[in-house]
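for the record, two folds in this file. i put them one after another cuz i was lazy. first one right below, seq on top, structure tokens after. the second one comes after a little note so u can tell where it starts
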Amino acid sequence: MTITHHLRVHRSEENLAREGQLAWALARIAVDPVAVDDDVVDMIINRIIDNAAVAAASLTRRPVSAARQQALDHAVSIGGVGATVFGCTLERRSSPEWAAWANGVAVRELDYHDTFLAADYSHPGDNIPPVLAVAQHTGGDGAAVVRALATAYEVQIDLVRAISLHKHKIDHVAHLGPSAAAGIGTLLDLDQETIYQAIGQALHTTTATRQSRKGEISTWKAHAPAFAGKMAIEAVDRAMRGETSPSPIYEGEDGVIAWMLGGPDATYDVPLPAEGESKRAILDSYTKEHSAEYQAQAWIDLARRLGTERPDLRDPENVASIVLHTSHHTHYVIGSGSGDPQKYDPTASRETLDHSIPYIFAVALQDAAWHHVDSYSPERAGREDTVALWHKITTAEDAEWTRRYHSEDPNEKAFGGRVVITLADGSVVEDEIAVADAHPLGARPFAREDYVRKFRLLAEPVLLPDEIERFLDLAQRLPELTADEVQQLTIVAKPGVLALAPAPKGLF
């Protein structure tokens, strides 16, 4: 039975005991030895495959290469055997926090892995790189990785259900630091006190502004969750040495809620599993069929369909205007409501175009397809007819779609909207979509074969056939993997692939 943790700010003289603190409640979830349900195990396997797929597709991109080089420039710390780095040989190891950093950037770079949206945003698959890196370094087996990831997904998703960060312009990785710390605590079978201290530091060091996702979006967008995972590992290390962290981190009068979120009078009700209750939150998350911001997924599917059914809509000469009636979040974050002129700039960065639903809808409508590289190329973005159509597309907030976006009923929760296309002759085309085709309630819900197909599609250009099969075999046997096999749970690039990637030099 789910319980509710009521969260508010406490004055220092109230002396809130740790037993009443959210960080303590999250640590309690981490130490609960409840078994992981079979369907949760299956989904964890799916998401490990998904992470490796999108990491493979990004191996030669500059931000990923820079992070990888940073990791490889750090020797393995003496407390274990180190962790693997995506793309590198099995023997090439780095210290776990740096491996988590490199692998986290690879996973996040293309904005192409799993998502959960509620009061805030999240990509809970970002928990996998730090958990797996620590497991490899310390000799964790597959069953331990499963338990750890069930905890990490549960903690992050429960926080996202209740606490809005973006409303106060705080980046969503502030929910990731605590979840990764909790997951690592489960992995290492740490006590509640140690995990509590690690969660406190992980939160304290991973709160930052949302400017990383505003205006001209930089390559830090991919690095932010990797940084949170790295900080979580360092927080666990420090807590294991008996060191303490700011407390109460959420509830203190100078804490996160009082000064970074809703203020001294704010309250939140965080749903958490009761003691002995299965950790099933991962099943409420969903992956991406397309490499784009999650709130664009359904719109891509609708645009592809419309472009196929009505080829005349692809020509800007035939279109007077296109209005996407959608949720508050979609309108203000990736739509025209953001006020970001970069969202209409054909020379904008890939990261910016990924957060421009007018651009995405225009390209998907014209191409009746979406590709993780080709759809973002400068040549594609600068095409004259695309720019003309793109600049006729705006978004508008619709109260009903906002309500459905925030609905707690999974059967009506929606991330799409209604499109109104006014043609040059005055006629109007209208259509709508609630969820992406790949969503659990969509037209083609993602299942194991879809995750495997996505992996093969993205991995084939950079991995040898035998390497693809080796990884898939290991991933799909995750619960039974030995510690030695967990240390091989990575992807090794074809000879010469990494040599083609940029090799930027830095301080290390």
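(here's the note) second protein begins now
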Amino acid sequence: MAKQFTDDDDALLAELGVEVEDKKASSRTPREERIIAGFEEIQRFVDEHGHAPRHGESRDIFERIYAVRLERMRELDECRTLLEPMDRQGLIAGSEDLAAEPADDLDDDALLAELGVEVQTSELTQLRHVRPSAEKKAAEEVANRQRCEDFSKFKPLFEQIQKELDAGIRETRPFEMKAEIETSRFFIVGGQKAYVAEKGEVITTEHGRTDARLRVIFDNGTESNMLMRSLQRALNKDDAGRRITEPTAGPLFTDQTIDGDEASGTIYVLRSKSDLPLVAENRDLVHKIGVTNMSVEKRIAGAHLQPTFLMANVDVVATYELYNINRTKLENLIHRIFAPAKLDIEIKDRFGNPVVPREWFLVPLYAIDEVVERIKDGTIKEYQYDPNSATLVSRAQKNATK
């Protein structure tokens, strides 16, 4: 059973809700963000396998796709300029032969086509491999709209959302995971704002994937009875596709200070480079969530010698600066929220002594970000973390189903 929040938590949340300033919006274009995300996937592959992705019939299919992607990145000057500053492995400037094994009879484009993947020819889309049949299905569902008979009920919501966007109370962020698609959430797809008014029963498809039927209202007065995965595909396909964040309450996690602010430290989220099987098999889900009053770089120095870091180096995947806040209480609050997903692992320190590291959780990064947002707007008390769906769920809804 999840632990109940105490009066101390309420007091802390009240503290957290004071005058929070929004983070600076990213200066990168959606196109640049996609290129960087694709390159980071290749970097993780190199971290795990110790070499650049290569062509070859005996290679894993994803390695072969990464090899195609890396070649495109090396060819485009725009990509080289964007990626070279973060190319810690020398992949863009490197000359390692990607065809270290005898090449397939099929060229790369034919290989991708055989996989149901189409390589676009323009510079903008050369790095985006999309499944044509899935795209068509998603486009058909988005286009298959009808007039929303009760739009007068939703129109004020869209007007309010626009006001909050203009005022900076809400912001738009790149869409990442289908878990972000829930009732009362707003998105931008096809140049229109979309509101998820209803979500039906979650079903499991014949391929073992979850899906659900949605009622989606658009700001032009139409609606669509579409599948969650169709909306997900449409958002991923759309370069300008975005999710609209929940309203923020003022300035707790910020990269700027105002007069009188007192620095309290930094919450950091780390990803381990450990080769322990449990970690290696869940690399993108295993995260350490901690707090420090020093620079994060100093905190993780010599990570490979410290049991708390699993005796391995780490990557910093997110940080949240704290001001005028009790950082220890905040850290305890976050740890208590994610307690159901705490990683149970034992390792040996340098002297062979068994150690059970703390602060490691089996949670996706987007869930951590959502918890931060819920703490900022003061609504975290209404939710608890569900490790089965890897999302925050409403306490009221969960109690009603018991």
